[in-house]
Amino acid sequence: MRMLAELSPYLILVLVGFLPNEIWRMIGLMVARGIDEDSEIIVWVRTVATAILTGLVGKVVVFAPGSLAAVPLWIRLLAAALGMLAFFVFRGSVLAAVATGAIAIAVGVLAGS
Amino acid sequence: MSLRIPRSPRIPSGSPFLGGLVAGASSVFTFVIFGSYLSIGAFAHDLGFSAPWLSFSTVLVWAAPAQVIVIASLAAGATGLEIAVAVTLSAIRLLPMVVSLLPLLKSADTRMRSLILPTHFTAISVWIESLRLSPMLPRPARIPFVNGIGVALMGAALAGGLIGHVLAGVLPALLVSAMLFLTPMSFLSSTVRNARLLSERIAVVVGLVMAPALAWLDIGLDLLWTGLVGGTLAYLVQRFRRRP
Questions:
Q1: A45 in contact with B at a CB cutoff of 8 Å?
Q2: If we measure between CA atoms, which residue out of B2, B23, B28, B22 comes closest to residue B185?
Q3: Are residues A70 and A18 part of one domain?
Q4: Does A22 touch chain B (CB under 8 A)?
Q5: A111 to chain B: which residues are within 8 Å by CB?
Q6: In angstroms, rounded to a whole number, what is the distance separating the alpha carbons of residues B92 and B94?
Q7: Residue B36 sits at the chain A interface (C-beta within 8 Å)
Q8: Complex ipTM value
Q9: Using 50, 70 and 90 to split pLDDT, how confident is the model at B226?
């Protein structure tokens, strides 16, 4: 990795982090030019984005990144379920979902250690 | 299921940008983003990346999954091409987000360059809050409003990243694990809150099940297939029910 190491870390960031990420936003900017708010394609695109988003959530919960991987899978699944239960009990409160999920993870880790 | 109807955002002293700043700062995502960047800051510190570099990456990349990929793979000695491919695969989700958000923001006379900033700010959190709040505003106010949300949430990310970088080693592992759970929980619950159409509600469930299943089966591009196949199926169910 001599070539990469010799480049400035900021240049590396632009080449391997910024550009490959930003290109999708810029393609989106081009594609959105011809689309108006009421067009049917927006409904489809939003549905695709929604499936990708919750897909990402499912992957993070099942194949946990970093130190979350040390938490057993069943605790992660239970914490997610309890978080969503709190969301509905508190009539659509995202804060209730987030707090309950995080506390459930913490309690699960403490109980297991 | 009776969920609260969102209140119309307040526009202080007629400035939609300030209104966006306030809406962003008072959003649950400020707390969630601060917490998850606290974890990312500690992670970057442990792998030897400087605080200014991390801040630069937050402003330029503005997508937590891509930033984690860059940090972890540079530290592991991956080649530039490998990292760029992994980042670009993780970033495909940004395309449908930008395409579904911009038509809400632009008018017939909107210049392309005024859409560049909201396009750059588009990330899951900003997308969710902008789709929820901006339709309640008059159209010319929407672009500065979304920019305000973006600045507020990016500010929370920068602050969280810097504090995490400084506190690395002091932060207990328990806290870091709990913080890492904030992001998936906030994305899931706010997507359910925003899902009004039947197609979106089906997509929520299909996505949750399909992506981990495809990843489990070791099928590549799992998120892309989940979006294209699962999302399209969910859309078709809605379409079919509307016109029997």
A1: yes
A2: B28
A3: no
A4: yes
A5: none
A6: 5
A7: no
A8: 0.87
A9: very high
